[in-house]
Protein: Endoplasmic reticulum oxidoreductin 1
Amino acid sequence: MVEAKIKEKNRSKKRRGWIVGAVIAVLVAIAVTSRHSLIKNHKPCHCNEDSRKYTGIVEDCCCDYETVDSLNGEVLHPLLQELVTTPFFRYFKVKLWCDCPFWPDDGMCRLRDCSVCECPENEFPEPFKKPMSLGLPSDDLVCQEGKPQATVDRTLDRKAFRGWMVIDNPWTNDDETDNGDMTYVNLQLNPERYTGYVGPSARRIWDAIYSENCPKYSSGEICQEKKVLYKLISGLHSSISIHIAADYLLDETANLWGENLELMYDRVLRYPDRVRNLYFTFLFVIRAVTKAADYLDQAEYDTGNHVEDLKAQSLMQKLLLNPKLQAACPLPFDEAKLWHGQSGPELKQQIQKQFRNISALMDCVGCEKCRLWGKLQVLGLGTALKILFSVDGQNQPDQPLQLQRNEVIALVNLLNRLSESVKLVHEMGPTIEKIMGERLSEPLSEEISRGQRIWESLVGLWYLSNLCCV
Ligand SMILES: Cc1cc2nc3c(=O)[nH]c(=O)nc-3n(C[C@H](O)[C@H](O)[C@H](O)COP(=O)(O)OP(=O)(O)OC[C@H]3O[C@@H](n4cnc5c(N)ncnc54)[C@H](O)[C@@H]3O)c2cc1C
Structure:
């Protein structure tokens, strides 16, 4: 009797053991399969290292990504980097203290880096001062510390400038007339980088630009001109963000500056449209510069420093007449396709007004250094628009192209900024995307460890059930 009871107890123990075992086996199978699939999904992508994310023709342009990258790396970037250090191109005339025509200035900048080092009067080239009778503030001498260049040779060539005169630009809002509000800034001393200008003030400007003046077009938008305006601004915005991320204050107490890869990814790289728009803007500005080649080639880059001025002239010629650029990308952007149809002239007026508003909005940027670069780059874009759409010196000889000195300085510095951004995106983009891609898959690793925990609990359960069944 007792023996029978013991046998029965053992049988039921075994049955329980089998049932628990079967349940565990099923769970183990599920856990193993899900673990396998998680690991499989997480396996690092062994993509072909050569496979490029951006290939083919840059949308609405006439040049492909590969060509842009190689031309930029071999020709444009090295030439432009040197060109912008010459005295002619490094001093920009700007009105920094302007009232915002739309809302009161709410200066939101946190950092000292927001403020611009102005040039004391003795620093900028004498010929630049010629039309201006009023003095400039010289109380910011501390900013001249570490000045990278020797002061300009002030031996003057008293010859009047050819071509550098005050001509109205229908695309911009700036009043270039010299007066006491104008100041000269050495761009080399004021690099475009992180300034701490964030929050509602900065957001308000971008919102006003996009919502009121160049709304993002829908996929069905057929108006090329509106698309062009949006893409130009978005490309410029990408470039500004790339520069902020590439020269970021990583540790304020240690004053440590460096690259913020996460920011570069979050603001630009993760949005392919923003990268494409950057390439578009770059090609658009290259087209403007090459279209104005005759004018820019013959212009006088006179600062009174003959050696440096000759260098500027020669670098400019190398850029404009570069055989590689001419052969590989003869027409970076085809402006002849725009403003057709009956509504063409009206549309041009409308878009011109929108761009002028954007230009005026730069007076609302609540951080001096951002305002400086904002104004310079918007003037550069306005100059490109003027060259491509407002003057047709080739077909209408009575309307020869005329540019102001400041417009040329802005155009070339803008091109250099875009060229730097394109280079950074080309060289760093794939690595940053890989790093960020792996980080983004971290939740997967959590799932893996969760899977592992399930697996371990199951093994424990199996062990316990076997113990109790013994
Ligand atoms: C003219 C100007 C110049 C500036 N210069 C500097 C500077 O030199 N240094 C500095 O530290 N800060 C500068 N800022 C501030 C900087 O641009 C950002 O506004 C700030 O860093 C806050 O960034 P955010 O993440 O809020 O996004 P923001 O860059 O302010 O973007 C606002 C919104 O615009 C949209 N957006 C962003 N990028 C694009 C794009 N490429 N195309 C289309 N839409 C886009 C997104 O919806 C985003 O949420 C400048 C701002 C302006 C308006």
Summary: The two ends are 22 Å apart (CA to CA). Confidence is low (pLDDT under 50) at residues 27-49, 131-163, 444-449, 459-470. The pocket of flavin-adenine dinucleotide is lined by residues 192, 194-195, 197-198, 202-203, 205-206, 234, 237-238, 240-241, 244, 267, 274, 362, 365, 369-370, 373-374 (CB under 6 Å). The longest strand covers residues 91-95.
